[in-house]
Amino acid sequence: MKVIFNRKEMDAADGVTLRDFLLSAGLNQERVIVELNDELVPSPRWKETVLNDGDRLLAVTFVGGG
Description:
This protein is mainly beta. It is built from one helix and five strands, in the order E-E-H-E-E-E.
């Protein structure tokens, strides 16, 4: 199936969870927030949120600095 991840079309396995998709994308899950189809998904729900064909994901990573 295809999903749009940070404005790029990507392949994703059927039935993949949001958590597993983020892991496969190499994101540090402790420093990221995610919108799925324009709705913020709290990290405790990532394990149970299954992606569907055509879903739009936006991941924003926090960076510390001064």
